[in-house]
């Protein structure tokens, strides 16, 4: 089976590595507009060969792993070009604009919109590793818009990657993911910015920062090339989440200014409830055990 | 040597455990106004015996590990009560108000103001572990206000705890720690609050949250009883840091609303510089290697 992976960074590289290691006969063709990334991916054994975009014409499956602005740019042409039983999937962190763009495309049913909730703060082919997706959630959006066979192909890939499938519509995806993922990236990027601005002498940060700061600001190391298009594409929900976050921070600041320990205590006690949710997410290990039905039920 | 530890939570419990395991003849007397915590600390072997506050009278060393409002409440009386060559140290996350309070105390020189930059999001004696402080930074403030012998005693304890000593004045401590520690706790508490408010159905958070969200919101699990007094006591610096953070978030929101990818990209690229600083902080392991002089020099 000929699989074309477009975008050979952390996500695309990790997909390639896993499929190749499966020994199920996948032939992995890699495409990246960054030539160094492409040759590095070949060198690392993440792909079998480097080709240009016209390789999609004969592909059985095309997996788009580029930043989401390039998904928009590439997807219509790829759908035009693929063979009749070819399947296309993307793995981007936004879904609505992508799905809207090709909603009326004659080959819409050949496309499956997906989003694996997996990643690290590192990027590029050297950041790839084969257990990146193990036990993580893989979202498939607007399933009813895709052909049954296309869904079968994508589910097989998700199975191989050990992703646990969750299904939702693309509009809900973009709303919820704004809060649970996009907002935490911005809070971290801006925290990093604020501390760097204040501490011109980085030695102070290094000396005084503990594991708490490191944990909170970890996402500030993430790739701007990946995240700028995500925030732009999901701007309404991201803006709404930021507005609420800023409003809540401002309310907290009022309590700080008044040294109002009682209300700060109450507010933080409410936030403590996040522990119950986090206990289901293994942040220590990149090889988290799959989230079981039982764990999900406990939360309901 | 009789050591009295007041406050038998994560910090006090971990100090007790480490000193007892040293087999250097420390006799550890534990005090906690929470009786359950006290008996649990005894049960866990973190202390040798439980006593009441009058035990400080005969103590060689008193280590105050309570929330910082109780440090203020307890410290003057303890200084009044200790014997002539007794030493008192605290381990709180704020230093100015504590140092100002006892600045004119006749036994000021018996007190050493300290702050180990160590902790987890867990609290209580059950959260204690003996490597909590290994390789972390231990700050000693206003050294010139303490007697040489008192400093010797405290340095020996810090050495045993494997803390790397950094010296600074209490005003600088409170300013810098507001940015590098207190602000990241608020950003995390309020992020948790914002997401919980939005996601009434916690299943959505559980299904959609990845390790990035878990990392950013980890500190929202921290103890409100510990943090409310810290924010109140360091309110000026904390408020200033929050103001800058909110200003920067608001500026980022303007870019999101305008889908201004170029400026978002630039802003995030600047934040990426935090990687260099974080690379010196081991967030994976609680047993981080000591930060070496070389690593610190690299940052200068």
Largest interface: A-B, 110 and 110 residues
The span between the termini of chain A is 41 Å
Ranges of chain A where pLDDT stays below 50 over 5 or more residues in a row are 282-300
Determine the strand fraction of chain A and express it as a percent band: 5-15%
> How many runs of DSSP E, i.e. beta strands of chain A?
8
Note the run of SSEs of chain A as H and E: EHEHEEHEHEEHEHHHHHHHH
> What structural category do the secondary elements of chain A indicate?
alpha/beta
- Give the name of the CATH superfamily of the largest domain in chain A: NAD(P)-binding Rossmann-like Domain
Mean pLDDT of chain A: 92
Tally of individual helices of chain A: 13
**The CATH top-level class label of the largest domain in chain A:** Alpha Beta
Largest sheet of chain A, order of strands side by side? 3-2-1-4-5-6-7-8
Radius of gyration of chain A: 21 Å
What multimeric state do the chains show?
homodimer
Shape assignment of chain A: globular
What summary fits the major beta sheet of chain A? 8 strands, mixed
CATH structural fold name of the largest domain in chain A:
Rossmann fold
Provide the number of structural domains of chain A.
2
Helix content of chain A: 40-55%
CATH architecture of the largest domain in chain A: 3-Layer(aba) Sandwich
